[in-house]
Design goal:
This is DUF4032 domain-containing protein. The protein is of the alpha+beta class and about 425 residues long. Helices cover about 40% and strands about 15% of the residues.
Length: about 425
Amino acid sequence: MTASLSITASSVDPGLLALPWSTTLADWSTPDIVYLPKGISRHLVRFANLSGRVVAIKETTAAMARREYEMLGSLQRLDVPCVERVAVIDGRRDADGEELPAALVTAHLKFSLPYRALFTQVLRPDTATRLVDALAVLLVRLHNVGFFWGDVSLSNTLFRRDAGAFAAYLVDAETGELHERGLTRGQRMHDLDIARTNIAGEIMDLEAGGRLEGGVDAIAIADGIMSSYHSLWAALTDQETFSANESWRITERVQKLNSLGFDIGEMSIDAAADGTRVSIQPKVVDAGHHQRRLLRLTGLDVEENQARRLLNDLDEFSARVSRLGSNEEMVAHEWLTRVFEPVVLSVPWDLRAKLEPAELFHQVLEHRWYLSQTEGRSVPLAEVLSSYVENVLRHRRDEATVMGPPTETMSVPIVTDSVPVDDDEAEVDWRDLV
């Protein structure tokens, strides 16, 4: 009975009305449902097709659905990595007029991976460490804007590849609280303790299922989030005192934060009355230093480590071949059109869902280093790309909408919202690949 539906959304997709809201989510069937792996949840969550994209639908109470919808909107405005809210569906009734739970609809994050989908047979220690480090960065960013999560876990997080590391995104904000005046140390430590406990349980669950590499210590992996979090939080917030003649320490502090991917919006500097000591402390710290620079120069919106790697290649290109001098914007445009875009467009169309463009470009650069080391020569990028496509990329599984490991339910084919390029546009002059 769609007439009784109440839809809350910033922009209502007409396709929402075509979904079978008069049927309990557990009874939805193909072609509405998309079978994707998901984390453990206290509520029923299923994936569905909506106007050519994939969305996650969670049944819950109307009050909780609206609260989480508003919370996700607040986090998006604060530029925190989280899933995109789509709608709240209330007023659902079945064919007999019986009331059904409300539903929260969020967009599926393309090229994201549930932690269980990051391995095919066993979880290796280095992968586990990178996941925990990514979750620690996310938790610091959340705490920095005054968000108390309350249910930190690998299952409530999605991961995207980020130039050899991972970037973490919040999925479930149901238990979260946003405090305008920031969090107390006790609140931050409580969240961190929840994270440690949940991660240990999740890793032990893998161990019980024979999905953990021998010798891996679940407790040690869980403890890793404590050290990673404390180290990053200290780098962002600790006050530093030094001699007045060591003013270079201010520049060093800024550069250290930039290297971690953060910008300083404001800094407090206090000098002693006799001028012998100076104290500094960052006031406003925003993540995405390299992301913002790359976006400004090229229009590419990528993860932080990917941005750092692409900027390094751009800088090398500028020093090696550019004829445009010190004009950074013109150099960036030349790099984009002569290097980045030809590499991406040269990947066969049927393989483009394997990896997102920035991660693919990073892996091509890694493959170039590997081939050059192996063959003892500087291998041309055209040759590198051919080798990478045939020997590496072709054997990867698609990650635009990731399928689960062989032991889990496999997904049905999904049509992504990518637009094919014209044949002429796809042709690449290999002489332009430097």
